[in-house]
Specification:
alpha/beta; six-stranded mixed β-sheet; 20 helices; single chain; elongated; 12 strands; 5 domains; about 500 residues
């Protein structure tokens, strides 16, 4: 696309440039497909002369250039099938996931507030603290009228930070890392006491920490903050039914061309240009079907009920039969290899840990088994806990108590295995997570160098059956139970874990 002044001299210059351009780059301009348009202040006779000089056709307002649409006729009225708020809904709620700029800017500003809280010794945090607030827990408590534009922006962006976060207890004088159950039960009502006891605590954490509960790792992200803002300020136009949500998820996960997905999305919302829809928007068209001319042209009729359309489907060599024929020939892929426990090798010990949670009573069962390099059982432990921890926290506690159990038995050079991949990934990272499980993860990292090789490995559930059985057995116990070199009810599982050559 070339812009130039409407003069003969400039047009001749353009011709000379194009003549030099062609042999150098090997590209020749097709003047027959080219067009020229001029502004309204140029006389039409002069424009025709310039067009003949260049050898191109003259148009009043170009429509397309290299298949790109023109924006010269933006003032013309068009059909808007939906408003912007519907498009900003997530795909799982019936929208297209377009970004709401105001909520997105809030999420970005809240990120700065999050950094002020978690990095209190930074220069920005110290300067703002000396002016606007005295403690980080009351950072967004008030915004005075004389505050700077920067602080007002932080206050505006951090309004929903409190709704999506909470403080994790970390500091205290406790040395055992456990709650005083009797004191908590006497001080709080049962519901509050159970909530407090369901939070793990640690003796190694020195300060409280703000946790973002919209993220499974407790860390703030602009994405999770944006989705939280959309949910709290949800538009009534977004679909909220469970059946609708399942349909949208199924639609966007289908392995079909994107243009087909968009078409099905428009059909689901009844946003296609058919007779009835156009008539509702006061466009003078015939509402009856143009194919059968029998019934009004609705979305359901145009796609499913039109008799002429059904005949066309049957003429297309029965696509339904072809689909079923192809589906019958597809076999499910199955792996012949079965996951099982494998010995760690000579000189090493393997600790398998697992936990189960009884959702009815809130009781947690921990299972720990330690075996030597050839698979011989050295020690087992079943441990019941009346705390109501979540399954993820319970599995982290199983690893922690497994390491402590190995210390009590006097074993070193151990490999730790768990079937919780999230925990195994967290322990590979240097930074502690912000989530409620953070204190437990911190304690595990403190114990790993002294007990094991410093790694916690992920194994499938089938390779962790012995620890799982011990965890389930803990539901029948009132106190811990330990077996040394003998665990009769685990014999069938342990014997099945032995390698074939043994």
């Amino acid at each position: 696309m070339i812009f130039t002044r409407a003069s003969e001299r400039d047009c001749v210059t353009v011709e000379e440039v194009l003549e030099r351009y062609a042999p150098v780059f090997g590209q020749v301009v097709n003047f027959q497909e080219s067009a020229m348009c001029v502004s309204g202040k140029v006389a039409w006779s002069r424009a025709c002369g310039l067009a003949s000089l260049l050898g191109v056709k003259l148009v009043k307002c170009y429509k397309r250039y290299i298949s790109l649409p023109s924006f010269a006729d933006e003032e013309k009225k068009k059909i808007h099938w939906c408003n912007w708020s519907k498009l900003c809904c997530s795909k799982d709620m019936g929208g297209l996931g377009f970004r709401d700029l105001a909520i997105f800017i809030k999420a970005l500003l809240a990120k700065h507030v999050w950094c002020l809280i978690h990095f209190p010794n930074s220069l920005a945090a110290r300067v703002l603290k000396s002016i606007y607030f005295s403690d980080f827990s009351s950072l967004l408590a008030d915004c005075k009228s004389g505050s700077s534009y920067l602080w007002k922006s932080f206050y505006w962006g951090g309004e929903l930070l409190e709704a999506g976060s909470h403080w994790r207890i970390g500091s205290g004088d406790t040395a055992s890392g456990e709650w005083n159950r009797r004191l908590i039960s006497d001080s709080f009502i049962p519901d509050d006491a159970n909530l407090i006891l369901s939070l793990p605590c640690s003796s190694n954490i020195t300060s409280n920490s703000l946790v973002w509960h919209s993220d499974k790792f407790g860390a703030y992200s602009v994405k999770s903050r944006y989705h939280l803002g959309c949910n709290l300020i949800s538009s009534p136009s977004c679909s909220s039914l469970d059946s609708s949500e399942s349909w949208w998820k199924y639609l966007w996960r289908m392995k079909i061309p994107s243009k087909v997905k968009i078409f099905l999305w428009r059909v689901s919302h009844n946003w296609i240009p058919i007779g009835c829809n156009l008539n509702k928007r006061r466009i003078p068209v015939d509402v009856f079907c143009h194919i059968c001319c029998r019934r009004p042209e609705t979305s359901f009729h145009a796609l499913w009920c039109c008799p002429s359309l059904k005949q066309e489907f049957h003429r297309a060599n029965s696509p339904e039969a072809k689909l079923h024929e192809s589906a019958d020939g597809v076999n499910e892929r199955s792996s012949n290899s079965v996951a099982s426990w494998s010995p760690p090798g000579s000189g090493l010990f393997r600790i398998n840990c697992d936990a189960t949670v009884d959702s009815g009573t809130g009781k947690v069962g921990l299972g720990i088994i330690i075996r030597d390099g050839v698979g011989v059982v050295l020690a087992c432990r079943s441990m019941p806990i009346m705390a109501g921890f979540s399954p993820l926290i319970s599995k982290a506690l199983a690893i922690l108590y497994g390491l402590l159990f190995a210390l009590d038995v006097g074993l070193v050079l151990c490999l730790v295995e768990t079937d919780a991949q999230v925990i195994a990934n967290l322990l590979r990272n240097d930074a502690d997570p912000f989530m409620e499980m953070g204190p437990v993860v911190h304690d595990i990292k403190m114990l790993l160098p002294s007990v094991s090789s410093g790694m916690v490995l992920f194994v499938p559930r089938k390779a962790n059956r012995a620890a799982h059985s011990l965890a389930k057995f803990a539901f029948s116990l009132d106190n811990d139970k330990v077996w040394l070199e003998d665990c009769p009810f685990l014999y069938p599982i342990v014997d099945g874990d032995y390698p074939p050559q043994l």
